[in-house]
Amino acid sequence: MTTAKLGDRVEVHYRGTLADGTTFDSSRGRELLVFTLGQGQMLPDFEEALIGMGAGERKTIIIPCESAYGEHDTRMNLTVPKDAIDVGTALEVGTILRAQAPDGETASFTIVALDAETVSMDGNHPLAGHDLTFDLELVRIVASAPTAASPQGLA
Question: So what's the pLDDT on residue 155?
Fold first, then answer.
């Protein structure tokens, strides 16, 4: 049986849950997740779990928050005057705002509270501080990574 290895393009079904059982993401009912192992498109532990699996194989993994999106960092919370935010839509709790720093980096902030004068935002990833459980199913290895060619003409 062929098993997944670095460089393979794979099709995966997954379901991601939090410790309380809440589903935060799932491919069920949607298109399969398709990506190449080892290109850093997914969390490293997610990719690592798929290596060595064969088509049709399933497994459940837990990725600790430190290996996923890190601990929740209160230094990423800020409150700003409402008039300092230049947006074309109404502000409400749960809205995600994107800001560009002077160095060109883009940051996302989720509005967590607001009043008549201020907006409180959280710059942490929404899954920061959470251990993540993934139910994985390797559906198919779409394309295998090339293997090193064997030397020709050696005596």
Answer: 40
Beta strands in the chain (DSSP E): 9-17, 23-26, 33-36, 58-63, 77-81, 96-100, 106-114, 118-122, 132-143
Question: If one looks up domain 74-122 in CATH, what number appears?
Answer: 2.40.10.330
| 24, two tokens | 């935060």
Predicted model pTM: 0.81
Contact 10, 147 (CB under 8 A): no
pLDDT per residue as tens digits for the range 109-128: 999 999 999 999 999 999 99
As a whole number of Å, the end-to-end CA separation of the chain is: 32
- What's the rounded Cα separation, in Å, for the pair 31 and 24? 16
Q: Where are the alpha helices (DSSP H) in 17-75?
A: 44-50
Buried b (16+ CB within 10 A) or exposed e, 49-73: bbeebeeeeeeeeebeeeebbeeee
| Domain 9-69+127-143 CATH class label | alpha beta
Tokens 């459940």 belong to 60
Please state, in angstroms and rounded to a whole number, the distance separating the CA atoms of residues 10 and 21. Answer: 26
For the chain, give the percent of residues with pLDDT over 70. Answer: 92
